[in-house]
Amino acid sequence: MSTRTSTGTARTTLAFALITATALTLTACAGGEPATAPAGASGAPGAAKNALPTEDVVSAVARNEDAAKLLPADVRRRGGLTLASSVGTPPSSAYLPDGRTVVGVDADFAGAVAKALGLELKREVVGFEAILPALGSGKYDVGTGNFGVTEERRKAIDFVTYINDGQGFASRADSPLKAVTDLTQLCGLKVAVNAGTTFERTLEQNKGRCAEAGKQPYEVNVYSETGAIWMSLQQGRSDVVMNTINGVRYAVTQQRNVKFLNEYRRLDVGFAFKKGTPLAPAFQAAVNGLKADGTYDRILRKWGVTGSGIPTSRISPPELPAPEK
Q: Are strands 240-244 and 190-194 parallel, antiparallel or unpaired?
């Protein structure tokens, strides 16, 4: 999950280039075939090594009249929506080498839903931690950023789910950690996360457990850029990275001397809206229409995340249960 701002394009593009090309010394490996890769693994079949897939899975989407009829009258008259989108790392969101074109799971689902509803999307790249407050103020109609559905967020935000992702861990290859199944395994370590994320919240809420176990507390290193968390890991300033399951799986295939530890927790991921939005039913119907016509599965296959499929889109479902302590 990225925390880039709309005014920081050059800075983040440079950071992303560094993480993917120089600072992390890319390997020659890519993700496996979707049919055989672990659930949530990334990598499109037939794509060049280290290249992002560019298959067009949106332009052929047909208008879904039943879903479009659920749109509010003012939106139908406008014919478009404003989308606040954070850009981080694949497969959720990333820039193509031109530094301008946003691609990823989020972009494809947003584009496909808009096509199904007959709407034009005006996209603005916004910092991850700024999107939800901006939706509440009415500045944007909808937001994407691999937003996990949590009870805390549901108090102020409505969601329409389209995939399932969640929280995962990675470390340097020489780490003695095999998996993080209990947060007390992090005691005494430095954990890198992005600001404003469920990762930061989870770690901060459970910080006292190390003292209860008679151990040194873990340190939460918070960064505003996704590239910075991996840089901190490679440079030894952090011991562990906590990020999205799909993002971590992808990242460890693209750099040397790091390893995927495990999935820690699954969360539904959805389009985010201002609380009480009238847009939710139309978006839900559009996502379910994409499932029915095969577009949904094509997007998942394109990005190698078939393990993140959901059976049906829901509006603000309850938060999935956390792992038992």
A: parallel
Q: How many helices (H) and strands (E) does the chain have?
A: 12, 10
Domain presence at residue 286: yes
Instruction: Looking at the structure, tell me whether residues 41 and 149 fall in a common domain.
Output: yes
Scan for tokens 């584009």, then name that residue: 111
CA distance 232 to 224: 12
CA distance 61 to 30: 29
Residue pLDDT, tens place only, 186-230: 999 999 999 989 999 999 999 999 999 999 999 999 998 888 999
- The pLDDT assigned to 51 comes to 82
- What's the CATH number where 182 sits? 3.40.190.10
How many whole angstroms separate alpha carbon 32 and alpha carbon 38? 8
* 289 assigned to some structural domain: yes
CA atoms lying within 13 Å on the CB side of residue 172: 15
Residue type, 208: G
> Residue 321 — very low, low, confident or very high, per pLDDT cuts 50/70/90?
confident
The token duo for 100 is 């301008």
Do 137 and 276 fall into the same domain? yes
3 state DSSP class of 55: coil
DSSP 288: H
**95 DSSP β-pair partners:** 102
Taken as a whole, the chain contains a residue count of 325
What pLDDT is stored for residue 325 in this prediction?
A: 58
pLDDT at position 110? 98
- For residue 223, the enclosing domain spans 167-265
**Residues whose CB falls within 8 Å of the CB of residue 141, separated by 6 or more in sequence, listed in order:** 75, 81, 82, 83, 273, 279
4 lies in some domain: no
Would residue 321 count as lying in a domain? no
Q: Return the closest-CA partner of residue 139 out of 154, 118, 122.
A: 122
Percent of the chain with pLDDT over 70: 84
Number of domains in the chain: 2
Q: Please state, in angstroms and rounded to a whole number, the distance separating the CA atoms of residues 201 and 304.
A: 28
**Has residue 40 got a pLDDT over 50?**
no
